[in-house]
Design goal:
There is one protein chain. This protein is an alpha/beta fold. The protein has a single domain, classed as Rossmann fold (3-Layer(aba) Sandwich), CATH 3.40.50.1950. The protein has a six-stranded parallel sheet, sandwiched between helices. A two-stranded antiparallel sheet has the order 7-8. The relative contact order is 0.16.
Length: 194
């Protein structure tokens, strides 16, 4: 399997990093684009350097490289995940404004009817954000804001991040070992791990 990963400048860059780590563990070929602001947020929010994150991917592209393989529909992929997805990136994708490689690659994924998942990071959401999400959802995109769940009793930030990443990967049929799953039982020990 081959997936495109975009990391935009929204807060929550750790979602993109953890996604790359899990995809590597699962043996998925990854093609990474980090936006200019994604690189800046990475340095602000995490102990990782851009170079360290880039080593997690199989291929890395400059955000302005419009001649990259992922800019063409003839380059076969299972789809794309943008995590985190900024409101700017959401708007650009919703309106076909492909001025960066993340926007162009997402546009290609949509036109080829492949899975596009956007981990939108913004709060509160304005009517503009909601309209852009609805527009993309109607086009078949998966809108998955990384909202924490608490039924699995997270005790660390890693628990919260891992659960959201596992839910993202579910949309591509990729199972992550140790991901807590709801069992339907409201009693003690109501979770099962895959």
């Amino acid at each position: 399997m081959r997936l495109i990963v975009g990391i935009s400048g929204a807060t929550g860059v750790i979602y993109g990093i953890r996604l790359l780590e899990r995809l590597r563990e699962a043996g998925v070929e990854t093609h990474l684009v980090i936006s200019r602001w994604g690189g800046r947020t990475l340095l602000h929010e995490t102990p990782y350097s851009r170079a360290q994150v880039e080593t997690l991917a199989h291929e890395v592209y400059a955000p302005s490289d419009m001649g990259a393989a992922i800019a063409s529909g003839s380059f076969q992929t299972a789809g794309m995940i943008v995590a985190p997805c900024s409101a700017k990136t959401l708007a650009a994708i919703a309106h076909g404004y492909g001025d960066s490689l993340i926007h162009r690659a997402a546009d290609v994924v949509l036109k080829e009817r492949r899975t596009l998942l956007l981990a939108v990071r913004e709060a509160p959401l304005s009517a503009i954000h909601l309209e852009n999400m609805l527009k993309l959802a109607r086009m078949g995109a998966v809108i998955l804001p990384p909202v924490p769940t608490f039924y699995h009793h997270p005790t660390t930030i890693d628990d919260i991040v891992d659960h959201s990443v596992a839910r993202m990967l579910d949309h591509f049929g990729i199972q992550v070992p140790g991901a807590p799953r709801w069992s339907g039982d409201m009693g003690v020990g109501s979770l099962r791990e895959d």
